[in-house]
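Justification of resources, computational component.

The compute hours requested in this renewal are based largely on the per-chain cost of generating structure records like the one below. Each record pairs the submitted sequence with a full structure-token output. That output is archived, and it is also reused by downstream analysis tasks.
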Amino acid sequence: MQNVEVADAWVSSQEPALFQAGFAPEQVNFGLLSMFIFVLFGLTFIIYGLEVTLTDVYPKWLGCAGLVVGIAVALIGLVQAYNGPSDLVTTILFTVWVMVVGALMWRRAGATP
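The structure output for this chain reads:
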């Protein structure tokens, strides 16, 4: 059975067993996504933030912002694993931080060492 067929059967189902059969993979998928958010977006940016903070290449505030966003996203990943989805921190704050880092790196790439 294709995923679309499972989703269609799940939506039109009146039987609890079929409903649960369609709901279980979604719960597993969401649990894995939450841990993916925790590790990839949380811990990774905590490490990047620490590195930026400990070097003199980029401004210290940028590293501190990365730490704060990384900690917030890691916490959101854990909270999502227990309570359900939340896009505020993982979408907005993470995107803003990545854009600022990208702009600073782009400007620095054109500078002579």
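The CA atoms of residues 45 and 70 lie 5 Å apart. The mean pLDDT is 78.
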